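This part of the workshop introduces the protein records we will be handling. Backbone structure tokens are a discrete shorthand for how the chain folds in space. Once this layout is familiar, the rest of the handout is easier to follow. The record below serves as our worked example for the rest of this section.
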Amino acid sequence: MSVAETAVPALAAPLTKADFLTDYRLAWESRHASLAGRKEVFMGKAKFGIFGDGKEVPQLAMARAFQNGDFRAGYYRDQTFMAAIGQLTWEQYFAQLYANPDVEAEPATAGRAMNGHFATRMLDDDGNLTDLAHTKNSSADISPTAGQMPRLLGLAYASKLFRQNPELHQFDTLSTNGNEVAFGTIGNASTSEGMFFEALNAAGVLQVPMLVSVWDDHYGISVPAEYQTTKQSISEIMMGLQREGEGQSGFEIYVVRGWDYAGLVDTYQRAAAVCREQHVPVLIHVTELTQPQGHSTSGSHERYKSKDRLTWEEDHDCLHKLREWLLAEGHATELELDEIEKTAAAVIKTARTAAWAAFFDPIKAERDEAVALLDQLVADTGTENTLHEMVEQLKTNPTPIRADIVRTLRRVLRAVRNEKRSFGRRSVQRHLEQLLAENADRYNSNLFSQSELAVGNIEEVPATYAADAPVVDGREVLQACFNANFQRDPKIFAIGEDVGKIGDVNQAFAGLQDKFGELRVTDTGIRECTIVGQGIGAALRGLRPITEIQYLDYLLYAIQILSDDLACLQYRTKGGQKAPLIVRTRGHRLEGVWHSGSPMQMILGSIRGIHLCVPRNMVQAAGFYNTLLRSDEPAIVIECLNGYRLKEKTPSNVGEFTLPLGRPEVLKKGTDVTVVTYGSMCRIVMDAAKQLADVGISVEVIDVQTLLPFDTDHLIADSLQKTNRVLFADEDVPGGGTAFMMQHVLDEQQAYRFLDAQPRCLAAQAHRPAYSSDGDYFSKPNAEDVFDTIYEMMSEDAPEQFPAIY
């Protein structure tokens, strides 16, 4: 059914009266949950609320088309859908509203995301993927508008790979031969985002089973459709995607009204069948929806909707329309529906009460335990007048939070710091330490994998070299590494611009498409955001993608989705989901403003939760790839742009040797100054170190190798204990990567204690690098800059031995 065919279809699904009444019950339970949730926020029991009222009926229809093995990448109003597929109880719904950090009570995010952010737990207690092919799955929601779309593309793309690559058919807990549909949901206003258009275009090119529902209630917060969408209709402006006939590439596009239960059920059955059987992407534009409580608890929609619009919304409320339809068709009586609505309200009240008790009772118990210890401390110290007010305030607080308890304990201990140490004081101190540890698990854990496949658990295998080891271009080392890994694991694949036919612009994949096929080594369009999203979704489903961003400068197109989705995935699900995606890119020195970037601080500040490898050559890069492809954690690997043609020895175990992350390497031992650097700067610094040796200065050169993690064994501090001087050097802007390294070494490692001279940083100029060799020389640190900086450091201490040069 195309956009042009907008007539309401007849109900085709063989549903019974019991089915209709079940849906009616769920719809009203969801509505009452929304209404109750708003009240809980206004009563101060929750911080913020965003609810799914007005979207209940289309979500019920979508749920009836959702099968085991399918995946959702959605929108934070999908509460009815999640309940209908059996992946959300109303007690869990309220647990999330209250931010209950107990993963048993709130399995989606363990209280780490605001309400309406849904996820299923896809990992077992050991961090291994569960049987995804036989469960209903939801990838973890994020708030940024349209941010679910890149990942949705990847979830659908995985089905294509599982169907078309026979080598993957053996993984029957991950897929049933690619029969799974990836269901996406999005609000009409969010379709204005570039990620939406990019993802739809890519899905049409790839022909993947991606079913996108647009919940259209005409507004984006207060901004109506005339400011959002050309023609005020996303389906009309996307008509060019409509395929011309069966077997042709393109989309199927359906339009259906959001209050038409029969039409919705029929549309979703038809759409899901096309998507599942033919792997044709589908767009369902669900129109004429309402939002009875407005956008969120932040404001009232009466401020921006006219009286006529509000009256229309009340008349077209999908629950009222569903009731009218059930009565008109003779599926229920007024009495039956009244009883269902009454019962639904009672169900939600019970769930809300139970969820609040499960959340608040443990906090009250913790408060009471703390107060008992504090009372003992007051008795021991005889400082009742000083402490009484603080203890009494905590004791009488009707709704304490854990921060209140810890804050009081810390302030009390501060107040008695000059008192004689007593049993009561020691008890309070121990209790504080216990609470801090418990809350660290609640609120700070699981940024990285805690499974046996975590990066730190991968066995280190040294590189070995034959006596006649071939000396080849660096790109050939990578080519051999990828070749070996592709042979080892059929789940590995690579995608990116120019990756396929020509084997990437630097030839590290040369010949691998011919050897392993187009499904394993694949070209993409120019669309960095959804290249990464394609990888995230596929990795969520158990595959091992390598997604290439051709130049590091272009990572900017994808940094948002890397930061908001991939980096925080394990954290925001408290270990419930993982996506071990490898992003391969190249940067540092080449030519000009947009091909010589080293925006390390931007990356470091955005991607905590993703490892960052900065190898100086291709053998080191290969070692990192070997480690990461055996691990279950995401990473970015930045290769040196000017290193592909440099000669390197090929290890005899090029596909098996592994490098540990977080361990620097001493490239040259020295006694006078330690230089901490990475990437292409290693060759610059080594050149300068040789020149400095000629004038009697001994430089120790350390390649950090990875920035995340950074020097986990504090090897750099050991070097400073010997040299007592340090220079941090890289190609980022001043205060960028050098400041990051300095903070780790001087603050975290406390190596400031060993310094006899001011620590120095040497970075690029504050602007982008200019074009040409001269542009490189005068924009980025060069060997002369390194020489002069270190010589000046030595001259400050021994001016007679090292007289001023200039």
Summary: The chain has a mean pLDDT of 95. The chain is about 40% helix and 10% strand.
